[in-house]
Amino acid sequence: MKTTWILLATPLALTWSLAAQSASCPELLNSKQRLLNSNQTIDLCEEFKGKTLLVVNTASQCGFTSQYAQLEQLHQTYKDNNFAVIGFPSNDFKQDLGSEENTAKVCYLDYGVTFPMMARSSIKGASANHVFSKISEQAGVEPRWNFYKYLIDAKGDVVATFPSSTLPMSPALTQTIEKHL
């Protein structure tokens, strides 16, 4: 009789545990994303829950592409303070042409990016990936161009947006990050 009770209780406990985990994950992070030019996926909630994030839509052939260098500097400056930069390449503005392999070359070889870069995806409109769909809902604004930046606090809420023209190491951006660390 005890065995039957344990067998019946175990699936129920597992269901409650999974529901609690899902509920504790901010909706914005509640997805798995494939890494750039890779078959590997990461669970955003497991990787980034409780961290302050700068989420950026990127492009490898844009006038703002040189911002990768400052994004990497920003990542290195704050990564030990529960902070991460996450890049989402997109061709929505027709400036990330070619293959993901080419995009990866620009990121990793040309600019030495070590922060996580997700696979190329749409970042606006009905086909936007889950993260940008939720960001746009919260912020009330879709990316207007490449290298649009969204600061997400440790609770998973969008707390600031920065246009493409705002450099990653600008005082306006770094001071806002520091307020939320």
Structural features, described:
Belongs to the glutathione peroxidase family. GO terms for molecular function: peroxidase activity. Keywords: Oxidoreductase, Peroxidase, Signal. This is Glutathione peroxidase. Residues 1-22 form the signal peptide. The strands form 2 sheets. The protein has a 4-stranded mixed β-sheet, sandwiched between helices. Strands 1-2 form a two-stranded antiparallel ribbon. It has 181 residues and is an alpha+beta fold. The chain is globular, with a radius of gyration of 18 Å. A hairpin with a 5-residue loop joins strand 5 and strand 6. The chain starts with a helix and ends with a helix. It contains 6 helices and 6 strands. Helices cover 39% and strands 16% of the residues. The protein has one domain (27-180): 3-Layer(aba) Sandwich (Glutaredoxin). The chain has helices at 2-24, 44-48, 67-78, 100-110, 130-139, 171-180, and strands at residues 32-34, 41-43, 52-58, 83-89, 149-152, 158-162.
